[in-house]
Amino acid sequence: MLAGDLYTFQDLLTDEETATVKRVREFLSTEVTPIANDYWARAEFPHHLIKRFAGLGLAGTKRSSLLDGWLALEMGHADASMATFYGVHAGLAMGSIQECGSAEQRERWLPSMASFEKIGAFALTEPTGGSDVAAGLRTVARREGDTWVLNGRKRWIGNATFADLIVVWARDEADDQVKGFVVQQDTPGFTATKIDNKIALRIVQNADIELAGVRVPEADRLQEAHSFKDTARVLQQTRAGVAWQSVGVMLAAYEIALAYAGERKQFGRPIAKFQLVQDLLVRMVGNVTASMGMCVRLAQLQDAGIYKDEHSALAKAYCTTRMREVVGWARELLAGNGIVLEYDIGRFVADAEALYSYEGTREINSLIVGRAITGHGAFV
């Protein structure tokens, strides 16, 4: 049981689901956590772990939303970068094919992606388009017979430097609608260049993508992606995963701070005995508990089939905001030790900034919820 699960939410999992969580937790604690700081410092990706992730048998497996969410939590608890790698591959890329691909396309691509033989990426964000990408997508696609020609640029595309299959979203010049295309890494005209000098998610290999006359066969266009509404269906699912990841990050920060408070001595006693330190810890575990409760209810809504955009948007906005507070308080508790990788908190503080922003900023997600509760859109 995680020390920060004060209300024992994990008890809501079945025995079989709990066994899966324990298996994943053991893998992450032995394979990911010990090397995370080293790879983070070098901004390199541990490619040797890909086959080991495959051995977990997680991608492409039908599970309850609660278990899916808890696994995202466990990955965030170990390392936000590896959680992002998995979320991009199994959530955004595979999710796009699952939601928007034909039966033939799902059969053609998903098995090799589930086994991690083929790694996926998801290319939506552009250099000049983030929050306004729904209306401002500049990457274009032009049909020439049974081939599509793609031109444009993408930015911040995780996994893109080594992914085999990249789901690229582009605006059809003929009908002005957003469509999805599966582009292979070695396609002429496709270039992915690693973004250097990041201060967050340094293990994630984000890339700038250039699409210069990239030719994609009609067979590789996602057949059920007809407009941005279809893209949004994918984001609705993965946004919930980011909320769960952020709970994992704040759980880790709280647990590190709690352990440190019991060991660190000042004025002749452990700092855990000081009232102000206990107040910080209680604020942390309060944020963790509230966020976890929201995510658990979100999973229940998903499994009940009554899940809406505003549900995932509120969870993403709320949980990542609370996460930001928790990692900041944890760094405060560790004082100077909180800014060195040796104590882990520095990595979580930096990585939290990326989770706070990607898959919809707090402001954009607030507007999604605001539209739902007032009936009025206020995006422009």
TrEMBL record:
This protein's UniProt keywords: FAD, Flavoprotein, Oxidoreductase
UniProt cross-references to Pfam families, sorted A to Z: Acyl-CoA_dh_1 (PF00441), Acyl-CoA_dh_M (PF02770), Acyl-CoA_dh_N (PF02771)
Domain Acyl-CoA dehydrogenase/oxidase C-terminal: start-end pairs: 233-373
The UniProt record lists the keyword Flavoprotein: yes
Domain Acyl-CoA dehydrogenase/oxidase N-terminal positions: 14-117
Cofactor: FAD
Matching InterPro entries: ACX4-like, Acyl-CoA_DH_CS, Acyl-CoA_Oxase/DH_mid-dom, Acyl-CoA_Oxase/DH_mid-dom_sf, AcylCo_DH-like_C, AcylCo_DH/oxidase_C, AcylCoA_DH/ox_N, AcylCoA_DH/ox_N_sf
Signal peptide: none
Domain called Acyl-CoA oxidase/dehydrogenase middle: residue spans: 121-212
Keyword Ligase: no
Family of the protein in this entry: Belongs to the acyl-CoA dehydrogenase family.
Protein name per the record: Glutaryl-CoA dehydrogenase
